[in-house]
Each structure stands twice: as structure tokens, then as C-alpha cells.
Design a protein that fits this description.
By secondary structure, the chain is mainly alpha-helical. 73% of the residues lie in helices and 0% in strands.
Length: 173
Amino acid sequence: MGTPCHFALFDLKPGYRLDLDQLATRYRELARTVHPDRFADASEREQRLALERAAQLNDAYQTLKSAPRRALYLLALKGRELPLEVTVQDPQFLLQQMQWREELEELHDSADLEGVAAFKRRLKAAQAELDVEFGECWDDTERREDAERLVRRMQFLDKLNQEVRQLEERLDD
């Protein structure tokens, strides 16, 4: 028997739309039950198992709370592992990526904090749109290829978002 499904750990049915507050609450409850402090007087084996369960729980939580990681995980559950680096057969989005990259570059050069904030808002809106689109795709088995394309877009936006946060930190210093 392999590792239990991330969703099963939290008593959830596999699906894209999750109540993140409920997930966080459930995570905290479960984390308390496997916390190493509770096993201070237990055997070495029990301590090791508790550590493994805690790590497993944490990994499952990190995966499920992140939209792109949750989407990728769902595809993997369906037996459709996405190659990590893939030539994007998505020319429209490729163009969009290049525009965003150029814009981020300019914001970096001009150290424009307000511009960065506006860029971040547009990025959030784009992520929210993808979130809805993937949710609809996921519910429709005929649209699995669309789902894969959307996951790649989600991954890109997630990475871009991290870069924006790093830029903000540098400009704040």
C-alpha cells in the first residue's frame, strides 16, 4: 500500500474546488495528532512514524492549498503526469508571457513601486480567471487537454508572482 492520496488524508473527495479555510482548519487538527512532542515518550519506531506522518501531512497540505500544485496533482492522479519543462504549444500565452516579462523588467529598472503594485493586481486577476477556467475544465472530462494547458499557465503565473514579490522586497529595502 503506497502513500494515501492527499485528499484522503483530509477526508476530502478529489476535486479542484476546495474550501481553503476548511482545509487549513483540518490541517491544524491533524498536525496536532502527529506532532513529535506527543511522541516524546514513545518508542523510536513510533517517533519515526510520527515524523513521517507529519512530513506527509505537510506535503499534502502545501500541495492542496496551492492552486497550480493542486491542479498538477489532480492530473497526476488521473495518470497524466505533466512533463516539467514543455515547449508551450500555446502561442497566444507565449506572447502574453513575453509582454509580462518585459513589463516586469521595466518595473525593475524604474524601481516603480506603484507600478509593481498595479502589475501584481493584474496578475492576481489573471490567476483568479485561470482558477475559474481550470475548475470548469476539470469538471468536464472532454476537456482534459485544456486542463493541461491551463495548468502550465497557472505554473507560469505562480512563478511570475514569486518574482514580483522578490522585486517588491528589493525595492522596499
